[in-house]
């Protein structure tokens, strides 16, 4: 039962929870409702920081390839454990935690093999009405990960996108001395570049059209940068350097084709970007003749603990450019989609 000293409760003793919903493209609403009873295997987390993700902006634009509106929003968060289900062990009230927001079924073939990222019935907390842009979130204890006590909440909220990058870099099997190109300096691209450097890559070049984003990438660990124009010029010269491993972190036709043109023969391309258009064309002749290898990477599977470890070697704080109270969620999204303002991570604080 909820402890009234700890929570705000209504007259029935139910905890009141504000949660942001995307009602229609460009339109957010904070909806307040009582929290349901905690299940035996669930942990209740009081959210302290929640970050806006690139995929939330696809939702905002009404162009997310696999989610329909209205939907709750928010899946990058950190907070404090405030209530434990009756069967939970290994957690204590007051633990600082982050949440892996995917929900796997536990009984399909992939889940039974431990490949829960490939779960045939996979869903996400926000898609089932448990958004993290809220006061509270109740989640299964196996999806809750403890954070170091010294980590600020806003950095803890970035463990989720860092886990996406960890997953991509592990899939790309980066070896010492390999030359890496990352196309797209959004949060994921910047994290991928930083992790490749920690993994011992030779050159780690990152490309983007925003000079400010490239500067942030350098601060986090990329070794050198190319503007989009410079990358295009670089690729037009037959003799210029090509890369062992390339990450596509944008999700449009043009950058996918650039990724293929920038790889060495037998190079490996890892596609991380979300494509609003479901299909893209590729330079097929080059693909075959250069024996280019290409793979996708999405989400995470056993990557959260690694992301938490790697975070200790990264200055995640430089990624946070804006903070808003949860009550200003609409304003925060309006800013996040505004192409004129430089922003990296926009944080909401309940
Ligand atoms: Zn995300
Ligand atoms: Zn499953």
Bin the strand percentage. 25-35%
**CATH top level assignment of the largest domain:** Alpha Beta
Mean pLDDT: 94
Please describe the biggest sheet, giving its number of strands, its sense, and whether it closes into a barrel: 7 strands, mixed
Number of domains: 2
User: What is the CA–CA distance across the termini?
Assistant: 23 Å
Show unreliable segments: 1-6
What's the CATH architecture name of the largest domain? Answer: Alpha-Beta Complex
- CATH names the topology of the largest domain as Quinone Oxidoreductase, Chain A, domain 1
CATH level-4 homologous superfamily of the largest domain:
Medium-chain alcohol dehydrogenases, catalytic domain
**How many E-type strands?**
18
Helix content: 25-40%
One letter per element, helices H and strands E, the order comes to EEEHEEEEHEEEHHEHEHEHEHEHEHEHE
What is the rounded Rg? 21 Å
Q: What's the shape?
A: globular
Describe the structure.
- This protein has helices spanning 54-60, 109-112, 153-156, 159-172, 187-198, 211-220, 228-236, 253-262, 284-289, 304-311, 329-337; strands at 16-24, 27-34, 42-51, 71-72, 76-84, 96-99, 102-103, 123-124, 136-140, 144-146, 180-183, 204-208, 224-227, 243-248, 263-271, 293-296, 320-325, 345-349.
- With 350 residues, it is α/β, with parallel strands linked by helices.
- It has two domains: 16-157 and 315-349, Alpha-Beta Complex (Quinone Oxidoreductase, Chain A, domain 1), CATH 3.90.180.10; 165-296, NAD(P)-binding Rossmann-like Domain (Rossmann fold, 3-Layer(aba) Sandwich), CATH 3.40.50.
- Strands 3, 5, 6, 9, 10, 17 and 18 form a seven-stranded mixed β-sheet that branches.
- The two termini are 23 Å apart.
- Mean pLDDT is 94; it is low at 1-6.
- The site of one zinc ion has 8 residues, from helix 2.
């Amino acid at each position: 039962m909820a402890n009234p000293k700890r929570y705000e409760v209504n007259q029935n003793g139910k905890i009141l929870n504000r949660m942001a919903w995307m009602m229609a493209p460009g339109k957010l609403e904070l909806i307040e409702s009582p929290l349901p009873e905690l299940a035996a295997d669930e942990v209740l987390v009081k959210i302290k920081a929640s970050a806006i993700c690139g995929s939330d902006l696809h939702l905002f634009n009404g162009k997310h390839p696999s989610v329909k509106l209205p939907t709750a929003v928010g899946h990058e968060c950190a907070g404090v454990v405030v209530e434990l289900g009756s069967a939970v062990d290994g957690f204590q009230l007051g633990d600082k935690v982050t949440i892996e927001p995917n929900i796997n079924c536990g009984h399909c073939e992939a889940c039974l093999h431990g490949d829960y990222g490939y779960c045939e019935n996979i869903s996400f907390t926000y898609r089932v009405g448990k958004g993290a842009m809220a006061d509270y979130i109740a989640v299964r204890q196996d999806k809750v990960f403890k954070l170091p006590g010294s980590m600020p909440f806003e950095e803890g909220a970035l463990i989720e996108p860092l886990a996406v990058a960890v997953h991509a870099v592990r899939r790309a099997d980066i070896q010492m001395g390999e030359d890496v190109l990352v196309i797209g300096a959004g949060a994921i691209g910047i994290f991928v570049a930083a992790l490749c450097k920690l993994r011992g890559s030779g050159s780690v070049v990152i490309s983007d059209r925003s000079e400010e984003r490239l500067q942030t990438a350098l601060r986090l660990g990329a070794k050198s940068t190319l503007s989009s124009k410079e990358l295009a010029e670089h690729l037009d010269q037959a003799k210029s350097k090509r890369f062992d491993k390339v990450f596509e972190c944008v999700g449009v036709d043009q950058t996918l084709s650039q990724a293929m043109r920038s790889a060495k023969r037998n190079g490996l391309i890892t596609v991380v970007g979300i494509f609003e258009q479901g299909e893209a064309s590729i330079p097929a002749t080059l693909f075959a003749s250069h024996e280019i290898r290409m793979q996708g990477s999405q989400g995470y599977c056993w990557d959260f603990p690694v992301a938490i470890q790697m975070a200790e070697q990264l200055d995640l704080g430089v990624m946070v450019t804006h903070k808003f109270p949860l009550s200003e969620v609409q304003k925060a999204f309006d800013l996040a989609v505004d192409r004129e303002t430089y922003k990296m991570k926009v944080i909401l604080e309940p």
